[in-house]
Amino acid sequence: MKRMAFDGIIKEIYPIFEVIILLKAKILAIAVFLLSLFILQGCGKDVVQEDLLNYINTELPKVADKENQVLNDYASVTGDKYTSDEVVYNTLNDKIMPTYAKFINDLEKIKPSTPEVQKIHEQYVTAANTQQNAFIMIVSAIEKQDSAELASANEKLASTRQLLREWEASLKQLADKHGVKIDPPKE
């Protein structure tokens, strides 16, 4: 008989134990969750910094050679190295335009993961497209022997330089904000 009473007590107490066990499990889960938030907050990563470092150190170097080649080819036939419209025209058509199209294609494949770096990258893409349009205008101006169109192309090149200065300033500002040091380019 005592056994029956004991079994009866167990049956009555068991649901209470079940509730206590569930409450302890929930409290433990909440405590683990809060602790993990605290730990992650303290050891948190700056995702913008990581994205910016990837952009500067990995993504941009992939396209830099093409852009540098274009700029060197253009400098080799303009300014004090100018010899004739024909040389500029042929260099633009045969070397600069195809290489620059590949450069822009590769540039547009870069997809930063944070909105902050995406915004800066878009500035660079805009500058590159503006410069490509200027090159197209120069070719057209030479074909037509149109000095007004050539003047417009030169204005577009000046606009490109301004856009690139703005991109560099934005890049530096974001780098400073996220503790990224940008080394000056090697000559």
Helix content: over 70%
Number of H/I helices: 5
Class based on secondary structure composition and strand pairing = mainly alpha
Indicate the overall shape: elongated
The largest sheet is:
none
Strand count: 0
Mean pLDDT: 83
Order of helices and strands: HHHHH
- The radius of gyration over CA amounts to 32 Å
What is the distance, rounded to the nearest whole angstrom, between the alpha carbons of the first and last residues?
98 Å
Give the strand content: under 5%
Low-confidence stretches: 1-17, 31-42
Structure description:
The chain is mainly alpha-helical. 83% of the residues lie in helices and 0% in strands. The radius of gyration is 32 Å and the shape is elongated.
Outline the fold blueprint:
Elements: H1 2-42, H2 47-75, H3 85-109, H4 115-144, H5 147-177
